[in-house]
Write a structure and sequence with these properties.
By secondary structure, the protein is an alpha/beta fold. The chain has eight helices and nine strands.
Length: 257
């Protein structure tokens, strides 16, 4: 059996690390011994999370980055040439309108962040991941990428794109020393996901979780990500779907009202 790679001195890049799943993943990977690089557009937020991680005796660096800016991503890659792990977490949902009336601008932005942003980081860092001799690419998709639901057309389309990106990359690089892992979370209550989706309308955001006793939280997904990354090198967790017990599917949720 091939042992899991030693985390010490291995760099793990986490995108969308300013809050929610990304920030929680950065904390947990750092606790597992990785040198973590946190990226997101909000510099102040990632610097705060990095400072917290460093204060706990671990190693973290903040790097402000817009994953949809290819030139910026390429510059980022030159700053960190020895990447061992890439967690593509940057993404998000905008709106919940039906296909007939959805805003094309929202659809475009979701695709740019969830798919093109993931493509930018993965393409740019893949040479370093391969050169490491033991790289891992994690793509955080969603159960939305595995089943449509009303009002979710744009997000479903984007997360299907992320899912297919992971599946195709795994086929194309088989035999190379890089694993490709997809994590598909279901209902996760974070501080920003639903409020961002509904343009800051906290009442609408709260209805997403109404009556659900225990939706997932960011740490639940971060723990799943960290577990897959720290498996022995020969073990690839192709797809891990993570839902709360109260959620049987995207459209079947037990609510105690």
């Amino acid at each position: 059996m091939t042992a899991a790679p030693a985390a010490t001195n291995r760099i793990a890049v986490v995108t969308g690390a300013s809050s929610g799943i990304g920030a929680a993943t950065a904390r947990q990977l750092a606790a597992a011994g990785y040198r973590v690089v946190l990226t997101a557009r909000r510099k102040d937020r990632i610097e705060a999370v990095a400072a917290e991680i460093n204060a706990a005796g671990h190693q973290a660096t903040a790097y402000a980055l817009d994953v949809t800016d290819r030139a910026a991503v390429e510059e980022f890659a030159t700053a960190f040439p020895t990447i061992g792990v890439l967690v593509n977490n940057a993404g998000g949902a905008l709106g919940a309108d039906p296909v007939a009336t959805g805003d094309p601008a929202d659809w475009r932005q979701m695709y740019e962040t969830n798919v093109i942003g993931t493509l930018n980081l993965t393409q740019t860092l893949l040479p370093a991941l391969t050169a490491s001799g033991d790289g891992t690419v994690v793509i955080v998709s969603s159960t939305a990428g595995h089943g449509a639901y009303e009002g979710g057309g744009g997000y479903v389309a984007a997360k299907n794109g992320a899912r297919v990106l992971a599946e195709t990359l795994r086929l194309e690089i088989v035999g190379q020393p890089v694993r490709v892992i997809e994590i598909a979370p279901g209902m996760v209550r974070t501080e920003e996901f639903a409020t961002t989706r509904f343009g800051g309308d906290e009442e609408k955001a709260a209805k997403v979780y109404a009556g659900v006793a225990d939706p997932l939280v960011a740490d639940d997904v971060a723990e799943a990500i960290t577990w897959t990354v720290t498996r022995p090198s020969h073990v690839n967790i192709d797809l891990l779907v993570v839902r709360p017990r109260a959620q049987a599917s995207n459209t079947k949720v037990h609510r105690e009202l």
